[in-house]
Fold each of these.
Amino acid sequence: MSSPENQSSSERPATDNSSRRDAPPQASGAVAPPLDGVSLMNYEFTFQQHVDDRVTASFRIEADPNGSRLESPDTHSITSSISKYRVENGRTFHAYKDGSYMYPNDEQELDRQDYQYVVLKHVMGGKLYFAPWSQEKPPRNVLDIGTGTGQWCIEMGDEFPSANISGTDLSPVQPRDVPENVHFYVEDSREDWQWYAQNETFDYIHTRMTVGAWQDLKEDILQKSYDRLAPGGWFEAQEIQCTILCDDDTMPDDFELKVHFDDLEDASAAIGRPLKLAHKFKQVMREVGFVDVEEVTYKIPINGWPRNRQYKQLGKMWEHNLITGIHAVSVGPLHRVRGLNQNQIQMMLVPVRTAISDSRVHAYHKFFIVWGRKPFPNELQTSAQGSGDATMGGAP
Ligand SMILES: C[S@@+](CC[C@H](N)C(=O)[O-])C[C@H]1O[C@@H](n2cnc3c(N)ncnc32)[C@H](O)[C@@H]1O
């Protein structure tokens, strides 16, 4: 098989959709309007368990020899070079474009990402998207950049069976058993997008939790997305701001978790992968030419400190996500940028973990959802006539 860079669309390492991976438990229940100024009173965390009623106590459950993961990533039929992962400090990292992204891709991290996916879906009221799609107006051709475990693509594929859903990532870690309308490709999205036909356009491009992947929002993804969207198509980002925030005086300046995330932000920025990007999407999308750009933000408590039951539940889930993920988000920057070894990193994380669970500090993360539309040519003309800005948007 040829290297991914040289593959034509017919031989690209798309996933074989022959069987189907089960999805993680899905959330139900009406959830939150955005948190800024609005309460989460109706926030319900009701996990539906998909258990077959016919299963009885006499039924014997077969054990998976591969362990607890839904499907082992190394069962993909992909070029061996892109699955020979870098091993560093007890974690594995993507092999394709080795070194360009600092966060692990091992089972432990994929399990955490699946968990985080469910929590964030709760935060967004069970929604997969804020762009104005519906069963009456479904998207036709959808791209998820930095798809990770591919969960978003799989659920979009289920919700919109007539749509063609593509997910791209540096790591071939997506399951094979996905809806027939879902395909995954190995790609570095910072480079020219090679894997799809040159005349192909999308009507919806999505990213989630990709900060740390981009050097320059505009160049790396937003301009390319704009250029590849059909007029009237939508781009949507669902991204967290890593900075630890607090609205009262309970967070001291030396709060270990805040100091740690500030250091990760500095380290990541030092090698050209800034983490403080979520708040920039709206502005840069407008600069690129998107219209009808909207943004909503949610506050996610770092642990169960809130009095409100729903916030408390959300905080406890986020605490679990942080505790299980803090090594993954730290190990790359601390080793590759700060030069620390595994022991030093583990020692450093001890007080950070304690801080994550410190409910005396009313700290939170901010989660941004930003979406905007590529204008139709007649809108561009009108805008140019009105504003004298003929180059707005840089549309093809
Ligand atoms: C934190 S994960 C989020 C995955 C998924 N979007 C989610 O919400 O669960 C970020 C993903 O972006 C991918 N990524 C990083 N840099 C990339 C690049 N240059 N091109 C494509 N994917 C990239 C990583 O491999 C990783 O799977």
Amino acid sequence: MRGLIPAILILAGVYGAISVGGGLWLTDREAVAQSATGDPAAGVVVDGQVPGNTLGNSSDAELWRAIRQGVEGNISSPGAQGGVLIQSEGENWRAVRNGPVSKYGVWGLLGVIAILAVFFAVRGRITIEAGRSSQTIQRFNALERFSHWLMAGSFIVLAVTGLNMLYGRYFLPDVIGKEAFAIITSWGKYGHNYLAFAFMAGLLLSFVLWVVHNIPNKTDLNWLLKGGGLFSKHSHPPAEKFNAGQKILFWLVTLGGFSISLSGLGLLFPFEIPMFAKTFAFLNIFGFGLPEQLTMMQEVQLAQLWHTVMGLVLTIVIVGHIYIGSVGMEGAFDAMGDGEVDLNWAKEHHELWVKKTLSSQASSDGSK
Ligand code: HEM
């Protein structure tokens, strides 16, 4: 017992010494650190020497310059993308997407709506001049209508969810709240990814069903020269199953839709479907002078920009198509509704097609 008290006193002394000494040492370190961060002069590089000595204190300007310029280093994990620490093109991509692409997209969409509003105010609804007859003629069969609505329905969802991805964050969180915006955007993204396949199927089927009716010919020139009769109440330039305006729409949808689909696949499977370097190499045959060496990251960025631009262009075109196929023209919607259109409507808008259809019906009736 007698030895216990001195032992406790010694231990307490050692503890005290350690605590006070350690505390003083820490306080000293903090003071040094604070003075180092507090005084900007202490952080200045002098003769290539940086403060601190964790990994050596010489600043390798060449190394940092290379990193800043996106030079790829060696890494042991799979996927070479990780070897690039700073990818400057990412900043350019973001600036182009959120800058001119978004801006001109809005102008295009508002522009087409304004044009249609002016057209409607001046020309009004395009009516059936001869009035409705009591007869109808089949314009599109069930397969054609299924194909159209497969393509159209999916496109509308793709367009709305795509526009939300581009513009939604600028105003929707204020209108519906951040949580609701996050939910609709993440579900919208799923819808966008999966419905893309329905769109591609509809696009392919519509192409197969309608391509024969969309080969341009002399009739189209006459139709175009007369403005399709759109600007005059009594002009009905003759047309076959599809007039020149519809043929233009068909090829815009086919080629634009194909291009959107391809770039969309490039985004669904990133770093797996490079296509721009090869496309640029082909275009360079015609003297475009485009870069042919692209990293996989640049491939994805270009796919994203192209996908957005083509998506906006096609959406703008389709707004015009929806107008003319619904409120803009009396009797037009029936063609994609039950497939039967009024005979007078058909004669005014597709005279040559009506003649051909009625004569082939008559000859098949006669041969029975
Ligand atoms: C609510 C939306 C839509 C409506 C009301 C609509 C209406 C119509 C109508 C009535 C026709 C037949 C015109 C005729 O008989 O001559 C048609 C044809 C067609 N539609 Fe649509 N459509 C819509 C959306 C779309 C979309 C989103 C696409 C493509 C992405 C599309 C592509 C086509 C094509 C290629 C044709 C054949 C060429 C033509 O007639 O212009 N449609 N549509």
